[in-house]
Structure formats: structure tokens, C-alpha cells
Amino acid sequence: MNKYVITGGKKLQGEVSISGAKNAAVAILPATVLAGGVCRIENVPNISDVSSLLDILTHMGARVRFLQRSVVEIDTTHLHTPQVPYELARKMRASCYFLGALLGRYHRAQVAMPGGCDFGVRPIDQHIKGMELLGATVLLEHGVVEVSASALCGTSIYLDVVSVGATVNVLLSAVCSEGLTVIENAAKEPHIVDLANFLNAMGADVRGAGTDVIKVHGVPRLHGCTYSIIPDQIEAGTFMAAAAATGGRVLLKNVIPKHLESISAKLAEMGVQITEYDDSLLVERNGALNHANLKTMPHPGFPTDMQPQMAVLLSLAQGTSIITEGVWDNRFRYVEELKRMGANIQVDGKIAVVEGVGRLLAAPVKATDLRAGAAMLIAGLVAHGVTEIEDIRHIERGYEYVDEKFRALGAQIERVSVTPDGEPLASAV
Ligand SMILES: CC(=O)N[C@H]1[C@@H](OP(=O)(O)OP(=O)(O)OC[C@H]2O[C@@H](n3ccc(=O)[nH]c3=O)[C@H](O)[C@@H]2O)O[C@H](CO)[C@@H](O)[C@@H]1O
Ligand SMILES: C=C(OP(=O)(O)O)C(=O)O
Known about the structure:
- The protein has about 425 residues and is α+β, with helices and mostly antiparallel strands.
- The chain is built from 14 helices and 25 strands.
- The protein has helices spanning about 20-30, 50-60, 85-90, 95-105, 125-135, 165-175, 190-200, 235-245, 260-270, 305-315, 335-340, 370-380, 395, 400-410, and strands spanning about 1-5, 15, 40, 65-70, 70-75, 85, 110, 135-140, 145-150, 155-160, 180-185, 205, 215, 225-230, 250-255, 275, 280-285, 295, 320-325, 345-350, 350-355, 365, 385-390, 410-420, 425.
- Helix 1 runs parallel beside helix 4.
- Phosphoenolpyruvate binds near residues 22, 23 and 371.
- It is an enzyme of class 2 (transferase).
């Protein structure tokens, strides 16, 4: 058990380099199964979701080795099982991408139902529908999804909802199928485009990623390649929100400003100055924060993965703001934690009404999930006093060296190891 201990009140100042995108990495690593060869993946974030996926690949017989801190070589030439057991699958949501990848390569897979953050129901019916339309038989028994096909044939697949996960799994299943697959109402997230680029680098023929119609011309086989993962949109957004919350001035390096447009626009509406450069972005705030309403939606809408962080900022603003969660049924569990720090937020279903309170006060809080944890970090950075955040394993699923990065910007944050009964063991500073 570990926790972050933050003494709030320091304005963040300086430069931070944004890491490779978690949500691209968690699709690309399973996709290496399709290579049947050696892939060298660069800009891989050092987060626990990546370690868990590499453990699954190793379990299946892949040879995995780090060449440098963020460069991993994965050889999937010889895999000896198309199964992902529960102990490995339960650690993260993205384990379900092995279904599509293994189906694509071996025409069969058995993957335990995945874990991931708990936002209420996280169905996979559209993933299953897509695989069935391609010719697979799908069984769900004893918590394990089993897919098999004698052949996969290209077809037209209209997704009933815009789903990142279903778009990924259908792409992975379709790249080596026979003929043309058309995915309509596809997700348009930057990580979908990154996955498509990676598949094309392995020899696939995927066109239209980033629009809502993706066309996949099946090819007989793929091969290994070298590929660099895009910068993390949500890590960047989290640092943007933290800089704005503390009234600081931070230059984010290694970003794609286009991917951050919905976040930049909302922050600008709130009175934050954003200056875009080619691959960096300056965030600064001098005046008061304005209230604003926001609704999360699939890309290019405002990302659901930035919703909790924005609730912290809106709590510091003047006036009343309304947040509408447009993707998940239950993504406001963090609100009770934020209220412990003095926030005034009323939740009714998928809507939260945030009354700006101007300042937050330190309190012991929990990271109830990954981005909830990011929100607690930002709240701790601005709060008066010392905030302790527990359950930081959620945060470490998706943020690499987050304490180091905040310390380099002037924050007072320590990662402390604690015994099971909560006593400190040692400071990591
Ligand atoms: C479109 C969108 O913003 N997706 C987000 C979603 O991706 P993730 O891939 O986890 O979830 P999906 O994009 O698949 O889900 C989007 C919506 O579709 C519904 N659904 C999904 C699959 C399915 O088979 N059936 C179904 O009904 C879900 O209940 C949800 O309401 O959560 C991730 C973690 O927060 C975010 O990084 C993604 O940005
Ligand atoms: C919740 C997230 O991820 P996952 O889908 O892996 O749970 C996230 O990236 O915010």
C-alpha cells in the first residue's frame, strides 16, 4: 500500500514532458500479437497497465524486453496459448483487446472478462456483435469470453454506440480477414488513429481512422515494425488543469495541440491563457477562474477521462457550473472525496452541479479510480494543508512518474509506502 502526501499551495512553474498515451499503448501492445514477429514500440509509458499487458504477452509466450526506459521489443513469433486467465485479465480493461488480436491471428481466443475502473456497467455487446458479423462464434461462460471462427470474412458493421473498445476489437479482428470490412459509427479518438497507424505499419490496410467510417481491406498476414506511441492527451490535460488550478505557468512539451482542443477551449472559457506551439503548449493563469458548463462526449467532444479533474477546477471558480457525463452512468464516485475537501457538488444521475467555493482544504482522501485519483492530486496541490491520497494504485495504472513530474514543477508531493495498518514505511523522495 502506498499513498501520496501533498502539501498544497504551490503554484506550478516550469516544463513537463508528456509521456506516451496510455489508451493508445493498451491497444497497441495487444495488437503486437498480430505481427507474428518482432515489434519495437517506442514512447511506452511506465505505468502498471503496460506492465500488466506485458505480463499477459509473456504468459502467452511472447519474448518481451525493454531496450531503453520507454522502448520495448516484443517478439510474438511463437505464442503457445490463446488464453488470458482471470488473474491477469482482471487487472485492467484493455485485456479484452486480446480477444480481437488472438481472433485475428489464430481464429480463436479465451479471455476472462476484463477489469478496469468501475463506472457502472461496462458492456462489450458491440465488440461481440462485430466479431460475430465477421464470422466468429462467441460464448460467455463462467466469466470467460470464448471466440472462435473457421474463417473471418469482411462485412459491414454499424456500431449502435460510439465505442472505443468495440472499434479497437473490430479493427484487430478484421485486419487479417478476407475482403473489405466497413466499420460505421466508429470511435474517432486519437488512440484509434494511432492503433490504425500501427496496424498499417505492420502491413495492414486500414483507411479512414479518425472519421466515423473506417475501411479495412483484409491482408493475409502482418509483420513486425518499429512504432512510436502518440503523447497522452489525458496526461497533458491533467497537467493543464493542475497548472490552471494552482494559478501557475507550465509549458507542456511533447504534445499534439490538436488532440487537446476541447480541453484548451474549455480552459480558455474559464479564463486560462493557452498558447499553442507545434508540439508544446503553454498554460498560465493569473486572474480568477470563471464558471463553465461541460458535457463529456466521444471525440472530438470533451473527454470523459478529464471530467473529474475539471470538477476540481470548477470548484475553484466563481459561480455555478454544470457537468453532464455523457459516456458513463456512474462517473461521479469521486465527488464524495472532493466534498471532504470542502467542494460543494450535488450529483443527480449523470449531472453534477458544482457551486464554486474558491478554495479547498486538505483532507485524507481515496483515489476511487484512475481519473478520480488525478482529480485528488490536483485538489491536493491547491488545498490548504496536507492531503493524503490512498489507493494510488489506480493512479499508477495511467500516470508515469507523476509525483516526480509534479515535484519538478515545484509541488511538494511525496510517495510514501505504508504498512497494511497505515503506518509510514519510508519516503520515496
Ligand atoms: C467513446 C468514449 O468516450 N469512450 C471512453 C471509454 O472507452 P471504453 O472503450 O472503455 O468504452 P466505450 O467507448 O466502449 O464505451 C462508450 C459507451 O458505449 C457503451 N458501450 C460500449 C461498448 C459496448 O459493447 N456496448 C456499449 O453499450 C458504454 O456503456 C459507454 O456508455 O472509456 C474510456 C475510459 O474512461 C475512455 O478512455 C474512452 O474515451
Ligand atoms: C478509466 C480509464 O481507463 P480504463 O478503460 O482502462 O479503465 C481511463 O483511461 O480513464
